[in-house]
């Protein structure tokens, strides 16, 4: 099993079970006394084969072998565990169920607790994530992977200062472990300590530890005004004929970032295009259009009127939505600088709720069954659970901000669960927004961004859905224009705070001084005062992006 990358960085990369899951050091660990059923030699042989198939990404065949073992030896913990690994990145709910069964059958196995905790972290369930990762450490205090996972959990929970000693302890145990070597500089960067992060990343590069990821992280710690020696090193790595597609994608994007900073835009775009092609992501646009059609047909004014008294009346939740790279992080930071507002970051809870009721399944365009579940009791229960989840982060805050951008798809669900919630829609110049997505190395969940034409057409679907939400929920959604915020920071910030129903506080003008972790691609930018260089940035690439401009059609304000 290859060493995994820190989740806070690796969540934007293509996820594969063989990369992301902690496996026992012994492939088939010995059974704990009285903790699991007797293992037969035949079971062990099948599970070894399943592990080999998993590593080869032949997941259906691996699953079939595990199910054969369970049919012969019910409740076999390692079979459950391997089945859990097969769900990582594809079906996290399935992974949670199988990891939980493995833990129940063999509660003294630290690796099972660790993987269960890490999967909870993937779905933004921080309390059980921390509990199970801590249990792994109680069972095996020197488990470096668990120390790093707990550090990642604290980073995600906006407690980066608690992450630092965990990574430092991990490095004392194994000074060359990739998770610790990259995890510590990430924690420092999330707290705004970019120079310290850069020093550690350069040390990792010198030792060739997780090299492509380290280069990708290093170039994000600063803006370059003159060519750094790292650029030639990155280009040299790209000349390696044995370079894998994932590593090539990371290095191309790193080279593109440096060249963009230097104003060498055509060269930068060549690398961005090659990086996205190497990632190999494909997006089913027609399927997505059908899903948007179903959303629009389902969430009508009549539906909202009939459910007006459903859900929870709390006005604490605030949802910041929009396309990625539209200013959602900046908006959250401005709001969270107010003493009565807590910025909770990008939370997966709402998506998990939608998945549970069949609303987020893009292969399902008949939402009749989902809507049938919208009873008063269910909506109150779901909203109450969601509110408790938010309150874990900030028990006393008047407003709690969830800035998961793609919640723009689920505004209909928000409107029913929280009729008094604030919804801030961040909108940016369409071409600038798309270019900003294209040049980042997103994971497969953002596969629409890997091709310029597809990206433009996807943006049109996003725009179509947002126009629908504004029509059926008139006056509910505050549109925060990125350009207006850049042009007149104070005026737009005052409008934001007024929309939240709070008195103005001058701290909102100094959002870049706010303490706490920032765990998105914008972590460098939001440590700086407002700057204007991102406005009409697309003109730097105009000759290279005609397919994007054409696919945007009338949304491209040229």
From TrEMBL:
It comes from Mesorhizobium japonicum (strain LMG 29417 / CECT 9101 / MAFF 303099) (Mesorhizobium loti (strain MAFF 303099)). This is Mlr4028 protein. Keywords: TPR repeat, Transferase. The lineage of its organism: Bacteria, Pseudomonadati, Pseudomonadota, Alphaproteobacteria, Hyphomicrobiales. TPR repeats lie at residues 110-143, 144-177. The keyword Transferase applies. It holds the Pfam family Sulfotransfer_3. One of its GO terms (molecular function) is protein-tyrosine sulfotransferase activity. It comes from the Bacteria. PANTHER family: PROTEIN-TYROSINE SULFOTRANSFERASE, PROTEIN-TYROSINE SULFOTRANSFERASE 2.
């Amino acid at each position: 099993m290859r060493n995994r990358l820190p989740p806070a960085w690796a969540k934007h990369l293509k996820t594969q079970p063989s990369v992301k899951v902690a496996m026992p050091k012994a492939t088939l660990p010995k059974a704990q006394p009285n903790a699991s059923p007797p293992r037969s030699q035949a079971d062990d042989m099948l599970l070894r084969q399943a592990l080999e198939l998993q590593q080869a990404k032949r997941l259906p065949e691996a699953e079939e072998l595990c199910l054969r073992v369970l049919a012969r030896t019910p409740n076999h913990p390692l079979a459950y565990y391997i089945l859990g690994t097969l769900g990582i990145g594809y079906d996290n709910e399935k992974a949670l169920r199988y990891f939980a069964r493995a833990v129940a059958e063999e509660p003294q196995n630290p690796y099972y607790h660790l993987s269960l905790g890490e999967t909870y972290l993937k779905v933004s369930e921080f309390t059980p994530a921390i509990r199970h990762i801590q249990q792994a450490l109680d069972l095996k205090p020197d488990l470096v992977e668990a120390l790093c996972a707990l550090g990642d959990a604290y980073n995600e929970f906006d407690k980066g200062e608690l992450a630092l000693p965990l990574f430092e302890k991990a490095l004392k145990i194994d000074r060359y472990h990739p998770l610790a070597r990259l995890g510590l500089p990430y924690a420092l960067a999330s707290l705004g300590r970019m120079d310290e992060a850069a020093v550690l990343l350069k040390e990792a590069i010198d030792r060739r530890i997780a090299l492509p990821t380290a280069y990708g992280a290093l170039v994000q710690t600063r803006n370059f005004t003159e060519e750094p020696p790292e650029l030639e090193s990155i280009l040299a790595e790209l000349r390696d004929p044995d370079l894998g597609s994932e590593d090539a994608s990371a290095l191309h994007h790193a080279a593109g970032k440096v060249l963009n900073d230097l104003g060498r835009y055509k060269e930068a775009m060549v690398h961005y295009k090659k990086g996205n092609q190497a990632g190999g992501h494909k997006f089913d646009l027609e399927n997505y259009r059908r899903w948007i059609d179903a959303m629009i047909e389902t969430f009508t004014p009549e539906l909202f009127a009939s459910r007006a008294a459903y859900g929870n009346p709390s006005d604490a939740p605030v949802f910041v939505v929009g396309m990625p790279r539209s200013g959602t992080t900046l908006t959250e930071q401005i709001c969270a600088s107010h003493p009565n507002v807590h910025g909770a970051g990008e939370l997966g809870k709402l998506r998990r709720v939608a998945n549970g009721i069949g609303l987020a399944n893009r292969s399902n365009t008949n939402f009749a069954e989902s809507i049938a579940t919208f009873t008063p009791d269910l909506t109150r229960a779901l909203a109450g659970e969601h509110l408790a989840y938010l309150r874990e982060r900030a028990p006393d805050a008047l407003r709690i901000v969830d800035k998961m951008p793609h919640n723009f798809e689920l505004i209909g669900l928000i409107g029913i669960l929280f009729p008094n919630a604030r919804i801030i829609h961040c909108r940016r110049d369409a071409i600038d927004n798309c270019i900003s997505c294209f040049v980042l190395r997103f994971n497969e969940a953002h596969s629409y961004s890997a091709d310029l034409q597809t990206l433009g057409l996807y943006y049109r679907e996003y725009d179509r859905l947002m126009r629908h939400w504004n029509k059926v929920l008139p006056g509910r959604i505050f549109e925060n224009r990125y350009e207006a915020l850049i042009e007149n920071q104070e005026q737009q910030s005052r409008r934001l705070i007024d929309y939240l129903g709070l008195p103005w506080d001058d701290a909102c003008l100094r959002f870049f001084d706010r303490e706490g972790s920032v765990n998105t691609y914008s972590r460098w930018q939001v440590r700086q005062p407002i700057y204007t260089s991102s406005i009409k940035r697309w003109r730097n690439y105009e000759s290279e992006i005609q397919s994007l401009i054409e696919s945007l059609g009338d949304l491209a304000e040229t």
